[in-house]
Amino acid sequence: MDTMFVRGLKRKCFDGEEDIEGTLAGIKAIPSYNLQRQSLLDMSLVKLQLCHMLVEPNLCRSVLIANTVRQIQEEMTQDGTWQMINTQSTGQASLDRLVSTDILCRSSRDQAEGKHVPAYGTFNKDFENDQAQDSSDTMSTASAVQAPRNLQSSVWEMENPQENKGNFQKSLDQIFETLENKSPNSVEDLFSEVDNSYYDLDTMLTGMMSNTKMGHCDSLETFSSSTNTASNSNCKSDLNDLDHIVEILVES
Amino acid sequence: MAVVARAGGDGGGSSSEVQWCFLQVKGAIDEDVAEADIISTVEFNYTGDLLATGDKGGRVVIFQREQETKSRPLSRGEYNVYSTFQSHEPEFDYLKSLEIEEKINKIRWLPQQNAAHFLLSTNDKTIKLWKISERDKRAEGYNLKDEDGRLREPFRVTELRVPTLKPMDLMVEASPRRTFANAHTYHINSISVNSDYATYLSADDLRINLWHLEVTNRSFNIVDIKPANMEELTEVITAAEFHPHHCNVFVYSSSKGTIRLCDMRSAALCDQHSKFFEEPEDPSSRSFFSEIISSISDVKFSHSGRYMMTRDYLSVKVWDINMENRPVETYQVHEYLRSKLCSLYENDCIFDKFECCWNGSDSTIMTGSYNNFFRTFERNMPRDTTLEASRESSKPRAILKPRKVCTTGKRKKDEITVDSLDFNKKILHTAWHPMENIIAVAATNNLYLFQEKVN
């Protein structure tokens, strides 16, 4: 009766797990899982944040992503990898991961203007600006982005894991609150410069957009490169555009 | 006992297997698809003579089946455009500073009670009742106005005459008869007409409302799952439908893969379900994506009312409404995607909402997949087929060749590998004629019609 489930599928999910990066060779499988889980967490948070800034987000999708984030967070707290991830020195791999998720977190405005931004710095600032008028939101929403940054930058500095956990929970809550009460400032931003920057991004990436198909997820950086022309979500196409940038940056 | 359909049923030339052949395709052929032309819903009416489609641009196009004539015996029941109208326009919610999309989420026909046809169409916020009527006669010989409508000079009216009806070219008019608005804070995902033909329900992410077709200024809230504190929200309503025969019974599905059956006689607010359907999870296959792929995207009662079918990301399940603890049948739609869930999450495909449908006799179910593939599952055999809606196989009465996705390393001729599937070509909406083997498959901006091969 359980034939609907693939038998013996013990691994947690990720594609092409057999293609372990060269730098991780010799390291046990568990750290790789943690890195993948971390990148899934980062990806999920970015999805939630990006969607928050656009037209009214799809509530079902937001709820499912938020539940995924909670799940990861719970697991990370349970098996104590919250501290583990801070102390691991995975060298090249972690740096690459920093690059990829950094780009994912940049607002498209900065992309188009070609600004060089420090990890999460600009995104952080934009988000704070959006929330500037909200009386109670500024600190906790900004912390939603700071939390992953803290995790990664703690290769260089130790952070209190308990704080980060609290930040995650707060960030999820804030996301749901703001889903209901959309900040007017973010809409102004929508209508000011962001529109133009989307067009620039499109022109820039037109060459890469044609005939792309889903590729292997065989390393943490090269996420799926499928384009979705039928999508009515800028969020989706942005992520795909940025994948291409990442692919090219990493391979060069 | 649970029955699982095995993939790759060869059929061995069994006489009962349906062979599909191409009937028609509607829509533009260009590679550049305008977003507004993307079909978002497909629905046959109760007789199957009319087929309605809604698109992202807020338009409804209705096709009518041509009567078979002696002069063209081979044009057996082609569908041609009957009426086109703009159902919904884009709106702006000034309070929230958000755009309200004009995309038609669902169309549901009302049973025909007179010469006119009625349907309900909905976008995210507003439901409209449309009347589609034919006019093939015109009155002539009015007393007070000329044939072209101008008022006649009073002194020219010298005698009283009775206007007569003269035939004219058939004109099909669509007019909005009711607008049911301002009842949904969240996005409407389902509407369902009750078997009493007087009421219907509309469901959004957190609430379900009951309407009377005649009353637009009031609706009754019958389900509300909104938590007092939105921060505690972990589950949303994904689909809802009335039972086909019992007008007090309806079901709704959730993003956690559960279905609740409610009886409106038990309480005014049906937050307490009468039945709760959930399949226990297999702990060995649990992953971070388990919940997402268990989210139900569509729920449909069988015509008999004895079963209901649910579609989640990777499978279709048939439930006996008398058995709550597990489905009676489970069919894998595209199990080969299970190892690709990470990528599908990244590109958002994992959130695609596929619909499913029954054939008239409830013996076969159909649902869509990627690469313009769609699947049919014959329940009694069990036998399943994968077919493709493509321009290449669009020759009149050309028989559709079954397709196969290669899941192992060795790709046979004519098979397609998982990595070369086009995830932009998704078939989310399909419909089956209520009585005959004619199916409508929406592939982005094209509507494909296939019918059973006749010898």
TrEMBL record, chain A:
Annotated ranges, domain SERTA: 33-80
Superkingdom of source: Eukaryota
Pfam families per record: SERTA
InterPro entries, per database record: E2F-SERTA_domain_protein (IPR052262), SERTA_dom (IPR009263)
GO-annotated cellular components: nucleus
Protein name (database record): Cell division cycle associated 4
Species in which this protein is naturally found: Taeniopygia guttata (Zebra finch)
Organism classification: Eukaryota, Metazoa, Chordata, Craniata, Vertebrata
Gene: LOC100229572
Automatic annotation (TrEMBL), chain B:
Residue ranges the record marks as coiled coil: none
GO cellular component: protein phosphatase type 2A complex
Highest taxon above the source species: Eukaryota
GO molecular function, a single term: protein phosphatase regulator activity
Keyword terms, alphabetized: Repeat, WD repeat
Similarity annotation: Belongs to the phosphatase 2A regulatory subunit B family.
Protein name from the UniProt record: Serine/threonine-protein phosphatase 2A 55 kDa regulatory subunit B
Species per Swiss-Prot/TrEMBL record: Taeniopygia guttata
Source taxonomy: Eukaryota, Metazoa, Chordata, Craniata, Vertebrata
Gene: PPP2R2D
